[in-house]
């Protein structure tokens, strides 16, 4: 047994490809745990950042600067009464949040956090991600129908129309990126997520800069379509609170509602990681082609450690600025402890063996984090679209542009 | 990499496909039927994976489970289900049904019993990693003409739908 576990160490493939079940399970648990924690952190960050955009303070009560707010929310949601409407279709009502949750978590098995840091590398990786994440629309439709109520039904109808429309433009943008992977000596492209990043590595460029501005436009189309796919502002018509209360999950409460939220945020992270993989070089550090050499490698490998030390510094500044009243003593100690943990993580990240292994994961997560911040930024900035405007943007702007980019990419690929 | 528990997964997925197929025709509620159909299609995708055809499995999920069935549900949600539920579920043509079932069953049985003699050509074990490339080469190389005809047919269907839906173009 022990031999079986240690036999994977030192291998240069993912546990799924090596066929090592134990390590695959470990990876699955680490990734799913990490995503769940990221969703909680995102929840706090979104409330906090939105509040600051609107010149409010946001959550401040639970823990220092509301840091423990997600945990308080989770406890509240878990202990709330679970209400099922009497006229609802019980089984479908029960099944809908599970489908959304499963669809948005299953896609993580092909997300490449590093050359070997993925649960598995499927030959049809990107196809798998698009297909499984498109299943979440079923959950939305089922939730809206099973609630047997007007607002959820309208929300579900809007949502299914919207997601199907934007899936088309999204798919075409993805195809033009996949086309770029085939521009090598042997002329064979790939659909595997790790293969796509390796193709960018081999061609010495991120696909966003390839055939400028074609890669950039394709990336832009994907970046717009992915916001619509995840039902986020400014495309959050399915859950437009001023028109439809809460859209398709109006009738849900407590744990089931929190499953919807978990699924939504997990799907946001998943589509962001598709964008990062296809256009932004996946796990590669910035400027891998121009800033080469051992010195630059060292500089870039020290960034994760310094980042955590900087976060620790911010936490300690927060400690110094805490009110001196005894009422705040526990909070001050808690924040100091949090800062100490961050600083300790930073110091661990400086150790050479950790530094080398953690690098690709760090850069991948950093790029995804940029997208997660953009989601909040959009929500604070843009007003919501009207439904006909939404359809017009999807079908009359994004789709023709995506087809044009695809054709031009193919022509450029043949010529150069 | 050698697949694990192949027999178990084959019977598991086939069982799901059969049960959901029965559910599709026995459920009174059209939405339940559609959901059972989705389950069956997903199980079929699993069967394609077992046949070393990951591309077909992925397309099955995207097109059938993710696209077409969502449109099915969309339409079912818009029609009046209460009237449909009061109507008779099965019509009385059991004789025709029985004949068709016997014929199909006989055909399947014949293939099961004599199949290895009829189809002597053995299928080469396909390589999992190049399945997508092989499909691409086949579609755009050997069957280019048929493929283009099919896409033209779909284009005609799209234009036809637009013409029928819109009074003034």
What do these coordinates show?
Chain A starts with a helix and ends with a helix. Chain A is mainly α and 416 residues long. In chain A, helix 10 (214-229) runs antiparallel to helix 16. Chain A has helices at residues 2-6, 15-18, 21-53, 69-79, 90-106, 125-134, 136-146, 150-181, 193-202, 214-229, 241-244, 254-279, 294-321, 329-350, 352-381, 387-415. The longest helix of chain A has 33 residues, at 21-53. The mean pLDDT of chain A is 84. Chain A contains 16 helices and no strands. Helices cover 69% and strands 0% of the residues of chain A. With 169 residues, chain B is mostly helical. Chain B folds into two domains: 1-83, Four Helix Bundle (Hemerythrin (Met), subunit A) (Up-down Bundle), CATH 1.20.120; 131-169. Chain B is 78% helix and 0% strand. Chain B contains seven helices and no strands. Chain B has helices at residues 6-26, 30-50, 54-78, 81-86, 94-118, 131-142, 144-165. In chain B, helix 1 packs antiparallel against helix 2 and helix 2 (30-50) packs antiparallel against helix 3. The model of chain B has no long low-confidence stretch (mean pLDDT 82). The A-B interface holds A 17-19, 89, 92, 95, 122-124, 127-128, 130-132, 134-135, 137-138, 141-142, 144-145, 153, 156-157, 160-161, 163-164, 167, 188, 191 and B 1-2, 29, 31-32, 35, 38, 54-55, 57-59, 61-62, 65-67, 69-71, 73-74, 77-78, 128-129, 131-133.
